[in-house]
Amino acid sequence: MANAVLKHCVVGLRLFRWQNHTRVGELAAFMNTGIAGKKEISYEDLKALLAKSQNLLLVDVRSQDEVDKGRIPGSTHIPVATVKDAFSLEPEEFKAKYGVTKPPLETSELVFHCHMGRRGAAATAEASSLGYVNACNYSGGYQEWSMKEKK
Fold it and tell me: Known SMART domains for this protein (predicted)?
């Protein structure tokens, strides 16, 4: 068991090193320890938010190639490697670049997602470190969404 955990940690460290992510908050989110205030929502929660919220910002952090193969309707594409820079932009710059309003720091309607949850968790941790303390991750990602939506 200990060897399996150690192997998982090494794989995780290599992944984040490869993506140039070395911050403790991002690593904590990846390791699912709950240290960095990591919050997750389910498919059902996301469906409810999409149905009722006018202000939800759903951020797809996958690569452009992945997005080209399919996306969750209403999502905004901001690759994981650019999340910190994107959410550091002034509101006018953010709107000009992404076509949507930059959410206020206190918003509870900022959701990140990727394909299976890891990059979404890293993006959520990054946003949290910038002050978006209520940001959350749709951990099922596009993989779960497309399966449940039969796409």
Answer: RHOD
Domain 38-149 CATH assignment equals 3.40.250.10: yes
The two structure tokens encoding residue 75? 């999502």
pLDDT tens digits, one per residue of 60-101: 999 999 999 999 999 999 999 999 999 999 999 999 999 999
Residues 6+ apart with CB under 8 A from 129: 23, 25, 36
Handedness of CA 110, 84, 115, 67 (dihedral sign): positive
Catalytic one among 36, 58, 59, 114? 114
Give this prediction's pTM.
Answer: 0.75
